[in-house]
Each structure stands twice: as structure tokens, then as C-alpha cells.
Amino acid sequence: MSIRIVLVETRHPGNIGAAARAMKNMGLQELHLVRPRSFPDPEASARASGADDLLETAQVHEHLEDAIAACGLVVGSSARQRYLSLNLLEPRECAARIVQASRSGKVAIVFGTERTGLTNAELAHCNLLATIPTDSRYSSLNLAMAVQVFAYELWLAMRPGAPLPAPLEVPLATGVEMTRLYKHIEQVLEQVEFRDRTGGGYLMARIRRLFNRAQVDQNEMNILRGILTAVQSKRRPAGNTVESLPSQDDGMEKSS
Ligand code: SAH
Fold first, then answer.
1. Which residues form ligand 1's pocket by a CB distance below 6 Å?
2. What does this protein's UniProt record list under function (predicted)?
3. Where in the chain is the domain with CATH 3.40.1280.10?
4. What is the mean pLDDT of residues 103-113?
């Protein structure tokens, strides 16, 4: 099982250390950092206590896309319910979904920067949104404490003896495959001269939201890419496709 914690633009290195400790207590190992303000940092090591091995193996990325490129399921965590187009889960329900998806692919749980949380652009990469229920008058937890709550729920769902959910029938498409799909859609929309009528250039953002919410699996991805390629082959004067699929038939054969 591969479940990674992704911390985006963490300002306080102490929070990175405390998050690493929370993870290690609960059996999680993979820490990914996107543009941390300061890392490595003595404050992170001090707060990690006995979890400095997680800091040593932590991977640092410039972009969130890179941190989730290999992941099927991507869960965003937010204190505020501001991204209403995504299903909103509590950590417990979320943990069950994560454990299931992690049986056939990599999963990421993404945490935002301390003061402002995840941006809409960052949330647009997520398939699910999870909020830790709190007193409505003060809903924002300390970053590392939010990591602790998710890690604890994952531990309960995965500890020895916990019932193992059946794996997904077909693994989910990965982040990098989703990025290719969006490029392909953009290209086809351009070729068929489809007009963005969202009034503000939101068309691609809305399309992303739609497909991320749908949690596209590998078969569905093959079908979608096959359809796009078929549209292009009718219209394209010559060349100029996004990296092509193995073959359209592959997807159709496996789909149920
Ligand atoms: N005002 C910000 C809080 C940032 S706290 C917001 O609205 O999200 C830093 C990060 O900790 C958040 O981005 C989120 O990933 C996590 N976090 C804090 N409180 C949370 C809560 N109640 N539920 C889920 N995640 C939370």
C-alpha cells in the first residue's frame, strides 16, 4: 500500500517535523513537500523527534502536479467548505476510500499552507475533499495536528486485524494520465473551434473538476482518449496529436 502525505508550501519547518512524527506513529512513511519555505531545517528535525528518517527520505517538488503524478486517488484536506463541487467527506469515511484505492494504486492526501490552506487551483487536482469536523466558530487546526487526525484514521482502517476492503475493479488513472487527458481535450476543443462560453475562461477548470470528481479509471481513460483521437482523425489535416494511446481497442476490451 502506498499512501503519501503531501504538504504544500509549508511556512513553518516545525510543522514539517511534527507532521513526520504524526505519520511515523501511525505507520505512514511517504512524505512529499511542495515548495517548503525552509527544508531541511533544524526546527523540522527537532520536532520530528524519532521520525527524522521520514525527513531524510522526504521528496521535495516544485509543483503539486509532480507530487501527485503517480497517484490514482488524490484527497484534499480543507478546513473550509468552499469547494462545493467536490464530495465532502470526514476523515473516517475518507480513510476507508483511501485504503481501498491504495490496494491498486498510489494515493495522496494533500495539505495546504498554514494561513490560507489549499488554493482553488490546488483543489482542482483533487478527487475528494475531506474536512475534520470541528466547532463551527474555529475550524482551522494546526497543520501537523490535521495530519495526525488523518493518519490516525488511516491507522484504524489499516492496522493488523482491520477488515481489508476489496480492491477497485480497475485502478484509477494517475495524475500524469489526467494531465495528458486535459491536454488532449484542450487540443480537440481548439481543433473543433469550440467556444469557451463560461465568461471568464473557466472552461478547462470546469472540465477538470468534472473529470476529477468522476474518479476516472484506466479503462475509462482509454475510452476517453480513444474518442478524442477518433474526433481528431476525422478533422486533423496532418500530425499534431498529444502522445497517443497504446490502441483504442485495448480500452474497449477491458472495460466492463
Ligand atoms: N484557513 C485554512 C487553514 C489552513 S491550516 C483553510 O481554510 O484551509 C493548514 C492545512 O491544515 C489546511 O490547508 C488543511 O490541509 C489542514 N487543516 C486544518 N484544519 C483542517 C480541518 N478542520 N479539516 C481538514 N483539514 C484541515
1. 77-80, 111-112, 114, 116-118, 131-132, 134, 139-141, 143, 146
2. Catalyzes the formation of 2'O-methylated cytidine (Cm32) or 2'O-methylated uridine (Um32) at position 32 in tRNA.
3. 2-158
4. 97
